[in-house]
Amino acid sequence: MTLQEERRPARHVRKKATGLRPGPRSSNAGGAGTLLGPLRQTGKLFALALEVVRAVFRRPFQFREFVEQFWFIASVTILPAALVSIPFGAVIALQVGSLTQQLGAQSFTGGASVLAVIQQASPLIVALLIAGAGGSAICADLGSRKIREELDAMTVMGVSPVQRLVVPRVLATMSVALLLNGMVSVVGTLGGYFFNVILQHGTPGAYLQSFSALAQLPDLYISELKALIFGFIAGIVAAYRGLNPRGGPKGVGDAVNQSVVITFILLFFVNMVMTGIYLQIVPPKGG
Amino acid sequence: MGIEVKVEGLTKSFGKQQIWQDVSLTLPAGEVSVMLGPSGTGKTVFLKSLIGLLKPERGRVMVDGVDMARSPERDVMEARKLFGLMFQDGALFGSMNLFDNIAFPLREHTKKKESEIRRIVMERIEVVGLLGAEGKLPGEISGGMRKRAGLARALVLDPQIILCDEPDSGLDPVRTAFISQLLIDLNTQIDATMLIVTHNLDIAATVPDNMGMLFRRNLVTFGPREVLLTSEEPVVAQFLTASKAGPIGMSEEKDAATLAAEASGGAPAPVRRELVPQLEPSPGLGERKAVARRRERVLGMLDTLPASAQAAIRSAYGRDVLEPTAVLPRGGAL
Q1: Domain residue limits, chain A
Q2: Would you call A157 and B51 a contact, using CB atoms and an 8 Å cutoff?
Q3: B311: which of A90, A119, A178, B32 is 20 to 30 A away, CA to CA?
């Protein structure tokens, strides 16, 4: 009764805004509302990000929740990440190998493919898996808690759901992303090595040599930094959509769906920006 | 003793739909109040606004110097520890068993030892009659048990203000009578300010010290129970007699045509309930401290009340000066 009534205006707005991805939950359903809806959502997303960052330093830290979430996210992402990274490393090695062969720079295959794996492929694989496997679970969990009023109950008891639930989850996605990125880099590089040396008859020596000639430590740093930031984005977006589902169980399903799509879009965009900045400020080793 | 809750000019809307406007009332410290209203008049929204879950557009909710609608989140968070809110369906954490659910506020807000937590939680579980079910998950118990578990959880931190959202919905009449008694007993034991949101007439007639009613986006009235129970206001009269004739329709409001048809049709005159005495605490608990305070307060404002309410109050208080409320003959007399 009163609850339904609470949702009525939201549904009403939704009808007007079909086709708009993040869907304005705005109270202002006019033309300006449709226009400002996405902006308002973006603002709220940033507000949540800020709130999470602030709450990280607020005691008491939910260590137990963090460990549980860390373990959960790690357990659903490790195996798929490894399985994805082997063929991914191979594809890059094969593609780069065939290209360098035509250019007559076959000896540089190792360096090129390893850099591509470490800087681009690895953080993205990690982020996609974290968002797809971990983020969707986080979003569904928070969303169903929200519609069952568990989060309201928590707030009423003077416990902030952001501090109690969101912070440990975001920290868990970040740290799993960081560690998983290391693993994917290694597995991807090994996969690339295997395919280049065994299948394309590259020489192991040239592979390793070009690697150390072109790659440098900042490449690894940026890779880990990317993974960390991607993990943060995946966690925040999942939490944001989970905390604000529209309507009943169906709304939670939609929210999960949206959280994954929004995260993917953000990830690729942020990746582009970070790569651009990195290439500008860090001088390439070979040059 | 409980804390007074002062609501001033509260207005809330969702989008273009206004829920209620300019609601002003004071929940007197330590007394039991009931907010009545037909379904869909924003009673739950009102409750959530009191505790700061929803932010009204205008007005203030003052609790212990904190404005629950406007103050910084940190202060509101702190003030919420004074509250216990019983949700309509309990709002228990689905992944925890009843014991952990009820222990949750203690574990979050106190540094008590596990043995002490156990003692307090079992005590509350016993109060609400759930002994033996503490190991069950919320999904494994009935709606009534979930409600009572929600009440137990609202009680563990010894709140100064208890808010109950439809304690009767989904309960049979006997369980409703028990929960009414439980609420009165609680008020006797911890002397907290209580607000019960309901549309159950039995609870409305027997539990509260004060009563208010929301209808058509307004607070119809709020004051001592006698005021509402004797009110001639058409909305109140219709609601209290559960009759079809009156301003309340199946959808929120009746249109003019239906009202006119009703006026000419001559529906049977609804039978008004008698004013029954308030529930007494269970034997052995002693007197509710709120009774004496309320008596003083109500007698002080007697002249400002409508004549019928004055008469009802005089007859209640005049009958026996020391014991103003007689023991209620449960059941039939309602």
Answers
A1: 61-281
A2: no
A3: B32
Instruction: Sort out which chain A residues have CB atoms less than 8 A from B76's CB and list them.
Output: none
Pick the more confident residue, A24 or A167.
A167
Torsion of CA A7, A8, A9, A12, to 10 degrees: 120
Of B13, B91, B108, the CB nearest to A149: B91
Q: What tokens appear for A87 in the block?
A: 């063929």
Contact A34, A17 (CB under 8 A): yes
Q: Is the pLDDT of residue B74 over 80?
A: yes
Residues in A touching B45 (Cβ below 8 Å): 2, 5-6
Greater model confidence, A109 or B24? B24
Which value, in Å, is the radius of gyration of the alpha carbons in chain B? 20
Distance from CA of A63 to the nearest CA of B (A): 13
Q: Which residues of A touch B104 (CB under 8 A)?
A: 157, 159
Q: Is some CB atom of chain B closer than 8 A to the CB atom of A9?
A: yes
Q: Is the pTM of this model over 0.90?
A: no
Residue percentage of chain A with pLDDT more than 90: 24
Q: What ipTM did this prediction achieve? A: 0.75
- Here the tokens at position A183 are 């693993």
The reported pLDDT for the residue numbered B256 is 65
Residue appearing with tokens 């169906």: A250
* The dihedral sign for the CA sequence B200, B204, B208, B213: positive
| C-beta atoms of A160 and B77 within 8 A | yes
Six-digit token pair at A265? 């879009």
Residues paired with A27 in a beta bridge:
none
Q: Classify residue A217 by burial, with Cβ atoms within 10 Å: 0-12, 13-18, 19+.
A: exposed
Nearest Cα of chain B lies from the Cα of A25 at a distance, in angstroms, of 10
Contacts of A149 in chain B (CB under 8 A): 87, 89, 91
In contact, B248 and B36? CB cutoff 8 Å = no
pLDDT in tens, A192-217: 888 888 877 778 888 888 877 877 88
The span from the first CA to the last CA of chain B, in angstroms, equals 31
Task: Give the pLDDT of residue A231.
Answer: 92
CB contacts of A28 in chain B (<8 Å) are: 15
Beta-bridge partners for B86: B164
Radius of gyration of chain A (CA): 22
Kindly report the nearest CA distance between residue B318 and chain A, in angstroms. 40
What whole-number distance in Å separates Cα of residue B43 and Cα of residue B33?
13
Q: Do A152 and B17 touch (CB under 8 A)?
A: no
Which of A1, A29, A152 is nearest residue B15 as measured by Cβ atoms? A29
Residues of A whose CB is below 8 A from B94: 144-145, 148, 150
Tens of pLDDT along A42-80? 898 999 999 989 888 887 788 888 999 999 999 999 898
Q: Nearest CB to B80: which of A2, A8, A156?
A: A156
Residue A14, pLDDT above cutoff 50 = no
Within 10 angstroms of residue A45's Cβ, the number of other Cβ atoms is 20
Domains of chain B as residue ranges with CATH? 5-82+159-319 (3.40.50.300), 97-152 (no CATH)
| Euclidean distance between CA atoms B14 and A28, whole angstroms | 9
